[in-house]
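step: validate -> pass
step: tokenize input -> pass
step: predict -> running
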Amino acid sequence: MTYDEPRHPINFVAHRTGLSTHVIRVWERRYAAIQPQRTDTNRRLYSDADVDRLKLLTQVKAQGQSIRLIAQLPNQELKKMLTQVDGDKLAVRPSPDARRQGNHDQIAALMSTCKEAVLTLSEEDLARTLLDASIQLSLLSLLDDLVGPLMTWIGDRWHDGSIRVAHEHMATAAIRSFLGRVKQIRRAGPGAPCIVITTPAGQDHEMGALMAAAIAANEGWRDLYLGPNLPAQEIALAAMESNARAVALSIVAPGNNPSVIHEFQTLRHLLQERTPILAGGGGVLHSRHHYELDGVYCVDNLAQFRDRLATLNS
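step: predict -> pass
step: emit ->
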């Protein structure tokens, strides 16, 4: 068998690359990223070269590139884009602002389709659009530029009466399920550092925590996601029993709620500063002074959260 000889079925390729079979097919059909051979029965067969190219595309996409823009680049060019700053090496990594400007129209179209799916109570259309977005966008752009703003829009429309509770529940359930799948696909192995992710007691909104879990998994952490509304004692015990390297909490507004602040301070005391806490969300953003304790890192967005994880794991 040679390096370029087609011999692997798509399920094998999915296992080797961490991509779903759906994503592999989309990258092939829509973007011509690879060209597998077909058997007489129309079954796809992939070579080792195809597998390595898909891995390379996945790595470059994880740096923030759109698959639409990189799918047909030669492997050598993709490898250059992965080069990090090291001595005389040049890192080719676009800034978040430049990347988002280039994706603006693409994101606007996806957002419009998501909103229409919410207004028409079409769970299937919403799920399909989110899946398409996960193929087209980097994970950070997917969460920061689409899912987060979409959840804000849904909340605003619900509060002003533009949509009913049924619309909000359908959309929330669909997005929760989608984020769970995203997190599962990117789940790290048992040897990866562990991070406990949840919301403190009194905080029922879990979307921020779920997005943080997806980012952590994508960055090579083993995320122990505990759901929302957990007492400080339970969070501390879970962190200790799992030998977690960090704990992440999502706190929505209002962040000056005395009971939430008490839970947060209790958790900091129980962990005895041996485990760093990453705190984010609207509540932290607008009441930061309540959460800036020793051993606590307040993050304003998912990009800062990702960067802090990289620092903790260095």
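step: describe -> The mean pLDDT is 87.
step: cleanup -> pass
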